[in-house]
Structures are given as structure tokens and as C-alpha cells.
Amino acid sequence: MSPISPSRPLLRRSFVVTLIGALLSACSTLPPYRRPTVEIPTKYAGAAPGWAQAAPADTAPRGPWWTIFNDPVLNQLEARVDVSNQTVRKAVAQVQQARSMVDYQRAGFFPTITAGVAQDRSRTSQNVEGKSLAGKTVPDYSAGVSASWEPDLFGRVRDSVTGAKADAQASEADLEAVRLSISADLAVDYFALRSLDTQKKLLDDSVTAYAAALKLLQQQLKDGAIDASAVAQATTQLEATRTQDTDIDVTRAQMQHAIATLIGEPASTFTLPPNGSAATPPAIPVGLPSQLLERRPDIAAAERRVASANAQIGVAHAAFFPDLVLSASAGLESTFFAPWLSAPSLFWSLGPQLVGTLFDGGKRTASLHGATAQYDGAVADYRQSVLVAFQQVEDNLSALHSLTDEAASQQRATTAAELSLRLTTNRFNAGAVSYLDVVTAQTIALTNQRTADQIAARRLESSVLLLKALGGTWHGQGDGAATQDESAAASATRPVAPPAAQSSTTLATAPAAQPVPKPVGT
């Protein structure tokens, strides 16, 4: 017989160590995650004709998107949204809650350690046979520490952490979506109020002019130069215009109260001074349709929820495998207090436990099917979010394009109405027409001026809604070779763009070599 090789015990120990290491290493059951595919158009159908693609990244809007309107009052109001708006505060709390859930799930990687001290007295029945302590009262003093640890053999904890991280990133994207929505609502209400101020100034001036005309007509009636019908017509026109003027006050007060609520201030303590100056819609570079997936926080949130649902499939898969629990305890126990803290009172235990479910009536299979269905639903939500985003962009691009033409046409109509009013007034002063013709010309001029102001307000509103549909603010691509998960997380948590020198965002700019329609607002 050949002598036993001294390397055999070493091989056995190496095999045992390798086996234990393989058991303790996590074998995740998480399915490989791939971002759901969506059909992306090559260009926006509603973009103004004659626009080409270029890449002047240094002109891309940065930071707060509302600064593109160059309105100091709006900038001050928007700055108060993050501080005082209660809806934003709730979204911040939800982000903190989601982040705490990540810490909660991550705690599953570590053992649980408990410690305790106890003192009790017990008495065994005297009528029990075979017990030496029958009928005796026995005190018991104990103190001990116990620990248990469940190694993540099949990735249940890891998958739970992955899902919690995705949920936290989705909550962060939700926060950005809430901020974007609230800031857009504030901008819409603010420009609507500015439009009301413009119309209010127009009506105030009209009331002043009509009152002066009525006073002049009343004097002419006394002199017998005209009949009473002209005075009645002038009075009717004056009072009708005053009614419209008062109605503007009601609508403006409601708009001011809405702004107060958005910035978190009681309506009774908030006032916004009138400002009748006209605001001009800015030129908004819309970029490529594919970049919309990075700009929109609601799309980022939907994509992160797909990743979270995918992680839940891994958790459901892990339930089919057994759980290994390693537990240990040690302490001191004695019937008498005096020797309690001595060495003979020591007790300890150590041992593993492997537990698996053999039959549960299909509960785990049902959970897996439910997790898969939840994943399919999250994918559908993501794709629907993308479709809605493209619809919103196209809607507002079309609206801006049409309103630009409408504003130009209305401006021509307003100019013609003002000319008609001047000519009719001159003819009335010459005695060629009645005052009814003047009233009609004044009404037409006032209506056209108000229509022009309302179209300007609609253009501003569509500009705000387009910026909202584009994600408000965005960052360029090419920041580094990030993974799909990291890219999605970045789009959910980094609303501010990197420096312009590092950006490759493609913007829509008009070629200078040929005449084309000007951007909105120029």
C-alpha cells in the first residue's frame, strides 16, 4: 500500500472552502434587464418648415427653463415653488421614503444581533411524576446574545435592493415631474394674468375715451347739433365696456389667487401689481425626438418602474429555492444570583438551518405570474408615456405654428380696424355719417385689439406647454459610457445639463442661406 499523500487533507480543506464559498455567493435569479423598445420618429411633424438640424450646443437652454422668457417677476415666483409649494414638499417626502426603503432592503445583507437580560421564577406542578423539581419554585437569571444571518444564496435580497433602488430613482423622477408641472402651471397662470393686465389697460383706456366722447355728445345735444339717439348709443357703448372692464377684475383676482396657492402663500396676503407690458414668446429649440426620452422626467420614472418590476420577478424566482439560516447564541444562566456571572454559568449554541418549501398549493407560482404581469403592465405604461409625450410636443408645435400665422393675420385686421375707426370718426365730424357708424367702428377696433392680445396670450401658453412637453430642461448625450440603468437613473435624477462644452444636444436652427419662417417670438 502506498503511503497517504500529505496533500490530500489540504485538497479536502480546499474543496470544503470552495464549496462554502460557492454556497455563500449570491446566485441571482434576476432576469437580464433591457429597456423596453419604443418607436421613435425621426423628426417632429409640427416643426416649422425650413428648419434644419444642427448642433450649436452652446445655445441650449440651461438651468431653470422659465428664464428663457426673461421676466424677473416670473423668475422670483418660480424660485418660491421649491420652498413653499406643498405638492412639491409631498413629492420630496416620497423621495425620502423611497430612499429609506433602499436602506431597509440593504439591511438584509447583514446579520441580526439581539441581546437581553431576564429574571423569572417558575414552579412545576407537584403532581407531575418523573421530575426532580416537581412542586418547587425555581428562580432563573439569564443574560445572552444571539445572532442570525441568512446568506443571500439566490439573490433575493440583492433583487429586492435593485427593485428598491429603481423605485427610489422613479420617485426622484416623479419629484422632477411635479416640479416641472407646478412651474409650468405657475408660468401659464402668470402669463394669463399678464394678458388680463394688458386687456384691462386697453379697456380702461377705452372707458376713458368713451366717457369723454359721451360728454362731448351730451354738450352737442344741448346745443341742438345732434339728436338723442347718438347720446343713447354712446351711453350703451360706455356701460358695456365698463362691464367688460369689471369682469376682467374678477378673472384677474382668481388668477392671482391661483398663483398664491402655487407658491404656497395664502391668497389673502398675496398681491401682484398690474403689468400691462406685452410679453414676447421666445424661440424654443425642440431638438430631436429621441432626446425626448432623456428630457422628460415622467418617462424616466416610467422606465425605472419597469426596472423595479423586473427586479420583483427575480424576487419571485428566489422563493423557489431554500433559505440557509446561520444562527448562534451565547450567554450566562443560573438558578442562583451569586454564581450567575461565573464561568460555569456559560451556555452557547451554533448551527445552520436549511429550510425549503416543498408544497404551497401554487402560491409561489402565482406570485411569479403576478410579478411577470406587473412587469408587462409597467412596460405598457412606459410606452404609453412616450406616446403621450410625443403627442404633447406635436400638439404644441402645431399650435405655435398656427398661432404665429394667426397673430400676423390678426395684426393686419387690428391695423385695418384702427384705420377704419379714424376714417369713420373723421366722416362723422364732417357730418357725413351718423354716430352709429362710429360706435360700430369703435366696437370692431376694440374687439380686434382684444383678440390680438388673447392670441398673444395663447402663444405664450403654448410656449410654456411646449417647454413642459420637452421636459423643461435637458442635458446632452456623450457624458460617458454609462450603462442602461445608469443612463435611466441619470435622466431621473439630473435635471440640469452638464457644461455646454460637453454637450452634443442637437437643436433645430434655421439655415441662414435662404428665407424661412422666423422662430416663434422673433
UniProtKB/TrEMBL annotation:
The keyword Transcription regulation does not apply. It holds the Pfam family OEP. InterPro entries: MdtP/NodT-like, OMP_efflux. Keywords: Lipoprotein, Membrane, Palmitate, Transmembrane, Transmembrane beta strand. It is a lipid-anchor. It is found in: Cell membrane. Residues 476-522 are annotated as: Disordered. Residues 481-493 have a biased composition (Low complexity). The keyword Transmembrane applies. Belongs to the outer membrane factor (OMF) (TC 1.B.17) family. This is Efflux transporter outer membrane subunit. It comes from Paraburkholderia solitsugae. The lineage of its organism: Bacteria, Pseudomonadati, Pseudomonadota, Betaproteobacteria, Burkholderiales.
